[in-house]
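Methods: example folding runs. The two proteins below were folded one after another, and each record is reproduced exactly as written to the output file, sequence line first and structure-token line second.
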Amino acid sequence: MANRKESIGKRYVKPRRLVVQGALLALLLGALPLHAASLPAAARGEIEGVLARLAASGCQFKRNGSWHSAVEAQAHLRRKLAYLQDRGAVVSAEQFIERAASKSSISGEAYQVKCGSGAPVASGPWLRAELQTLRAGR
């Protein structure tokens, strides 16, 4: 009888141990973004500069079929930047433009910028040109 209780006890110990080990693994994996690479100060400054230029441009920004003001676009791109930063997925202004500011992460549709009466252009090249202008001004 003692052997039977012991074997029953072992059957319940293993699943509990697996649950505890699984929970610890999930906790550790969940903590990984907390240790993700942070955005270098130079890249942060360039991204802020590009976003400021966008907001001040007076241009319109098209995303997911709707036109938005440049200020609304700036706010949207800041949210996307925060999301990428939390995951350590952006370390340069170029990565920010490519991963957050060129197309919708939901629809995959390219963002567009329309300034004045000019034709709309893809936001990626427009933002890269603003980044180059910003860098040239240093």
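Second run, written to the same file directly after the first:
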Amino acid sequence: MNAEWQMTNSGHGGNVHAWARAGGGSVDSVLDFSANINPLGLADSVQQAISQAINQVIHYPDAEAVLLKAAISSYYNVGVEAITAGNGAVELLYVLTHTLRPKRVLIPAPSFSEYQRAAKAAGAEVEYAYLSPANNFAVDIDAICDRLHHVDMVFIGNPNNPTGTLLPRGTLERLVSAAGQAGVLVVVDESFIDFISDGQAYTCRPLLKQYDNLVILHSLTKFYAIPGLRLGFALSHPQLASRLHAAKDPWNVNLIAQAAGVAALSDKCYQETSWRVVECEKRILYTGLQALAGFKPFLPSVNYILIDITATGQTAAKLRQTLAEQGILIRDCSNYPGLSPYYIRVAVKLHEQNKMLLKRLEQAVR
């Protein structure tokens, strides 16, 4: 593996292209556990919608994304006026911070690195609320509320990446309410909540009409396995949604992505099968990891598992390199603030793939 592959440790998972260039292989031959994508892959309905939309790429995409917003509105029971469509949720994260220009933001750590990058890119100072592995990385909402008086914006991942911690809506409402009184915006990232069959008990969407200081980020690329297309949306007070819409590229969501999103949200069979498969395989993989000497997995809520490998005596970087040479990618989490060099994250995939991962992990640390 060459220097380019080594450098990808500082970025995100899912960089199959760097792996292929480094080893001279094909992206089709890699088994990628480093990106948290639905293991069922592309739905037939979405593939068909993409094929049908190909001939329309001679036209500009709908700048208002009318059909996509209608599908989002219907599926998630939110008003169209609250929706800002995005080229992935991350694009809207940057649009949000550059539009509002917060001076200081508070971020639980570890959490998704783009919260920090987007805030700093907009000129904000970043403070961390560090989560403890001794407490299974639970988010202490009361402690965060105590720090609202000197920040402008708070980011909360629910479920949180990479820890998998999940907060009920009632707990988050306490934060949103307290933040509203302090004049603080709360950004709740629900990019993985679609993997929870009873996500209605956790989503903050019902709070949108009551709190104008709440923004919800949502990705459609993970659950519907379309990260290469990029598709997501933000939900907010209509006035803020109008500002975000005006601040972004007018054609930010391409025509094919819009068609794919409409098809995906109407595919109930794919959704139900995904919930069943991920829930089953998540339990099996977690149990298998618990049985491996030196591995301490944290109980997952969705389709990825954080693992402390300190007791194996290997660093995450070393284990990542060993598996990459065998065509298996895992996420080295050492670049997350709040994590040591001995944490990895793996996605939940299909049964035989998960068995292969367990076998290779056991061999690598034996």
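Comment on the second run: Residues 3-32+269-365 form a domain with the Aspartate Aminotransferase, domain 1 fold (CATH 3.90.1150.10).
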